């Protein structure tokens, strides 16, 4: 909450407002107080700082490829080389069945998963990595994990070009619905990464164990997500475990959009509910701990 009050020695280093005060009047200063209780993020305040979100996102993009030899090519190599490894081990050796060519089958899942995993990892470490900025200047702290999530969309867009190239290579004609479904599924993936990023970044500001647990948890998460295998291979008795996984519905819908076929609406509905729940609770929890970030980072 921002209020106006007359300067007083008790406020010490309160920054004066721009401009000179009127002659014969006391100098005015701006005092920023933390909000109380459980409050969601102030949307009007976020709109006022929208340009800062752009600059923070652009900063994260530049830092990611600064002093690298391959630059943005890493956005292609990471999912592409993973696809090659999965094809050799899971298709050639394990003989896992799939719908369509396995390289395209696995890459269609690796594309959203790679973005999701990188976005969650970056967002969880974003507050600690921006400690010098957070402890010196006031701005809505939610912009820091949000910029980390949005910065990964550049890699995602580059890797999406490779997916379209693979579809052309295997002479797979995309459905007209792909132009509508892919943006919506991308938005769901962004929302899921943002919701988890809000929770994990706030927790990581207090408990630094989070930064070590997140990569390990994401590795386990990938193997309970139908990335390297089709969903039909999961025994019926354990389908409820997959149903609780919000990335399962997103990946299955992504594959259906790329390869064609039916999409299980129940799994996708779980993903939509999980995104709404994580973003809502993440905003409240982040706002609750926001007042302590400058003290604990």
The total strand number stands at 2
The outline comes out as: globular
Radius of gyration: 23 Å
The biggest beta sheet, please? 2 strands, antiparallel
Q: What low-confidence regions span 5 or more consecutive residues with pLDDT below 50?
A: 1-18
Strand order of the largest sheet: 1-2
The end-to-end distance, rounded to whole angstroms, is 22 Å
Beta-strand percentage?
under 5%
Order of helices and strands: EEHHHHHHHHHHHHH
Helix content: 55-70%
Structure description:
The structure is a single chain. This protein is mainly α and 297 residues long. It has helices spanning 43-48, 50-64, 74-93, 102-124, 126-129, 131-134, 143-169, 178-206, 210-223, 239-243, 246-259, 265-289, 293-296, and strands spanning 2-6, 28-32. Strands 1-2 form a two-stranded antiparallel sheet.
Summarize the entry for a quick read.
The protein is mostly helical. The protein has helices spanning about 45-50, 50-65, 75-95, 100-125, 125-130, 130-135, 145-170, 180-205, 210-225, 240-245, 245-260, 265-290, 295, and strands at about 1-5, 30. Residues about 1-20 have low confidence and may be disordered.
Break the fold down into its secondary structure elements and pairings:
Layout: E1 2-6, E2 28-32, H1 43-48, H2 50-64, H3 74-93, H4 102-124, H5 126-129, H6 131-134, H7 143-169, H8 178-206, H9 210-223, H10 239-243, H11 246-259, H12 265-289, H13 293-296
Antiparallel strand pairs: 1-2
